Structure formats: C-alpha cells, structure tokens
Inverse folding.
C-alpha cells in the first residue's frame, strides 16, 4: 500500500531563510530532491544541500529520477545522489530544489517518498505554483544555486570548499557561464565569494565545458545537418528522433546545451530542440533572446513552464505533431518583432 502523503498545495508568501534554517536544525531525517533530466543547477544544488545537512549531523538521502549524470560525476559528494528505492521511505523533511512543479520530481521519486512532516520548496522558476509547507521562490535569481549560497551563508550553515564547488557548478551552468541576461552584479559577487572558499575555477570549468564525450559531438554534427529555420530565420530548431539517438548511441545527458548552438545564430530569436522519448512523448526545450518572445508562455500552453528566456514541456503524441504545433506558436510569437 502506498502511504505517500501529498504536500500542501500552495504557500502564498515566501518563507524566510531563518524559518527554513530552523526546520533544518530541528529535524533529523531528510531527503533532497530535484527535477527529472537534471542539469548542473539541479544536481549541484542537491549535492550542496546534502553535504550541508550531513555536516549538521543529519540523516540525509539525495534522490534523483536519473541518478547522478556521468558528466557531473566529478562533483565532490556526487556519490550521495542515487536512484529512488522501490519501496516508500518516511522522512522528517523533504527538500525539493530547482523544480518548477511537484510532478517534475518524477514518478519514481514521488512514489518513493512516504510520510513527511514538512515539505520545503526552494526554486527560481517564476512558474512554480508554490507547493510545500515552507516555500522560497526567487524568480530574480539566475540559479537555485545562488539562492542556496545566500541561504547557507546568511544562516551560518556549513559552506566548505566541496559545497562551494557544487554551488559554483550550479550557478555557472544555469547562467551560461555568467552570460545570460539574468546574471546580476550579485551573481558575480557570489562567484567571487565561492572562489575564496578555495575552488580551482580553471579545473572546474574545464570539467564542466571541455570534457564532452565524442558521441555528443557526433550528435551535434548530425543535428546541425538537419537544422530548420522559420519566420525568416527568427525561429531555429532541430529534432532528435528516437531512431537517430539509438543509432548514434547517445544518452539523454548528451543533449544538454546543444540548443545553444541554435540560439547563438545571428537573427535567431527563438531556438527549439525536439527530442522523441521512449514513452510516446516529445521533450521540447526552448530558448529566447528577447523577453517579448516569452517561451515560458508558449510552453505553458503545452503544459510546461520555466522562464521567459528558457522553458520546456513534455508533449504527448508524435514528433511531427509536436514540431508542427510548437513551431507555429513560436512563429506567432516572433512575427511582431
């Protein structure tokens, strides 16, 4: 019998860092979660929180639907990240990080979480519906890792070199190496503080951005051969059919960041990456270079979400149908620009 307890649906105001820290200090058992198809912000934030809780003497588990991705396996403390178990487990506190909706935690993860006294939701996605008991959503922050740094620092919680390295990976990857428009002066100040913790930024950046497997480059070559342009070059896209992915031997994490090659093309406003999945769905990733072309709003119309300049959705149906519908919406968004 599944005894999973639903978290409260909505918390209308942000919990303070002090309120969240008090819960962390007062309880003993924790599970730290983040979204399916995790990126650097998701895993870096999870590991950082897990390490901090361990140093507080807490019992901690860190679960992700995909486990620890190969390309982030070098992060200190990465061994904390595991697949969820088959049977539900109870915890004092569930901490959900960088996850815009509860469903994005994944079916297996949600089934593995049994009873919990408190749900904490820390995120930077403006589309987050504010699920949980204690909720802190900062849509101005470019990464959840930035929120966690300020939380740990302001509450005098553990923040050593290993934690700092994970937070730097989180912030760096979610800001496009500090290039995206949501990068602020505070982001650079935090990066400087993290460097003072002793991390080797050159070595870390090389592992993050200059250690791709050859199969990823082979995938990029094929995708670039099949680029599509619409709306006089304002919309660029490519598609990855399941058969092509199998033929190339790529794994899901190889796709991350490939959309930026489309986004970087002069004249392109919206870039789209379509990926056919095994469950009969299509994963859609969208990027925009103009806030007037709000890809979050486009993705919401397909039951997705995210940010104005970066969003995604999972659509049921064929790859061809998803391409047709999403590109039509993107063309409508950029035509007035």
């Amino acid at each position: 019998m599944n005894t999973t307890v639903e978290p409260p649906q909505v918390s209308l105001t942000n919990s303070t860092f002090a309120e969240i820290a008090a819960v962390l200090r007062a309880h003993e058992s924790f599970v730290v979660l983040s979204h399916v198809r995790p990126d650097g912000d998701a895993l870096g934030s999870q590991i950082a929180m897990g390490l901090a809780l361990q140093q507080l003497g807490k019992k901690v588990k860190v679960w992700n639907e995909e486990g620890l991705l190969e390309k982030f396996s070098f992060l200190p403390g990465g061994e904390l990240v595991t697949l969820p178990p088959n049977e539900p487990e109870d915890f004092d506190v569930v901490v959900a990080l960088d996850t815009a909706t509860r469903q994005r935690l994944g079916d297996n993860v949600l089934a593995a979480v049994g009873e919990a006294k408190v749900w904490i939701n820390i995120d930077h996605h403006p589309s987050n519906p504010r699920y949980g008991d204690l909720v802190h959503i900062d849509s101005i922050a470019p990464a959840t890792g930035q929120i966690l740094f300020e939380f740990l620092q302001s509450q005098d919680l553990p923040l050593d070199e290993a934690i700092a390295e994970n937070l730097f990976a989180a912030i760096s990857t979610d800001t496009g190496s500090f290039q995206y428009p949501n990068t602020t002066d505070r982001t650079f100040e935090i990066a400087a503080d993290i460097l003072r913790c002793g991390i080797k930024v050159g070595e870390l950046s090389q592992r993050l951005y200059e250690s791709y497997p050859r199969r990823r480059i082979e995938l990029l070559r094929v995708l670039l051969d099949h680029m599509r342009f619409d709306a006089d070059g304002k919309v660029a896209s490519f598609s990855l059919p399941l058969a092509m992915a199998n033929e190339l031997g790529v794994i899901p994490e190889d796709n991350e960041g490939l959309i930026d090659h489309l986004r970087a093309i002069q004249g392109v406003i919206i870039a789209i990456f379509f990926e056919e999945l095994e469950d009969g769905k299509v994963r859609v990733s969208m990027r925009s270079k103009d806030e007037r072309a709000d890809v979050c709003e486009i993705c919401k119309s397909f039951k997705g979400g995210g940010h104005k300049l970066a969003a995604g959705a999972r659509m049921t149906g064929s790859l061809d149908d998803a391409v047709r519908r999403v590109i039509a919406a993107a063309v409508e968004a950029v035509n007035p620009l």
